[in-house]
Amino acid sequence: MDTSSYSDNIPQAMHDFVELVREETPVELHSIHVVGSVLTPDFQPGRSDINSVIVLERIDLTFLDFLVRLGATFREKKIAAPLLMTPHYIDRSLDVFPVEFFNFREIHLTMTGEDLLARLVIDDLKLRLQCEREVKSMLVGLRQGYLRALGDPGGMASLLAGSVKSLLPLLRALCHLRHRPPSLAGSELIRSLQQPELPETDSFEAVFALSRQQGEKLPEKEALTSLFARYYQAMEALAEYIDALAS
Known about the structure:
Shape: globular
Radius of gyration: 19 Å
Helix content: 40-55%
Number of strands: 4
Order of helices and strands: HEEHEHHEHHHHH
Strand content: 5-15%
């Protein structure tokens, strides 16, 4: 996936962070990669966090303490705590976290060092299995979250927004499994689902739009309850669809 047209989304604060880490790291640095929504059209400046992966030759407490000292300065600038990995960890974890590494491979920009993410090889069988497991886990989370919300519109809106945000990486993986090019944009990913086996995918679009609201008045409780029911039904159908891909 070509993310080059979105590289200007990366704020100066992230460039400053990378430079500090590169110059002052107490352990041997392999590479730093920006990942996630900042490299997509879904990025919302001032609201979206800037996510990254730092690859080290080894990880120890001195590097964690080094990042802690930088944290207070950069957290307020929306620079999220980076994921820390070693090349060995990545190589031995592709079968455990195929969805995450697939998305890192597809959406990343190497800021310094070797671009090892571009050459990751993901097993499609394990990718499908994790997609099914994650969607079924999300169904459990939706049921529990609905009970916790106790009908509160804010709680229900937050539950739905968090769910669809977690769904997007799975949809990219699903596009790959269906031999279709995955999109960077969430709305296009959702539209790619539209087919007879998956009714009610318009609820995904409605929840995605809800997740991107900034300060707008929330829908009434009845409307949110109806949207939840449609979204939940669509998620059940999606779980069945992914399960059927195994046969």
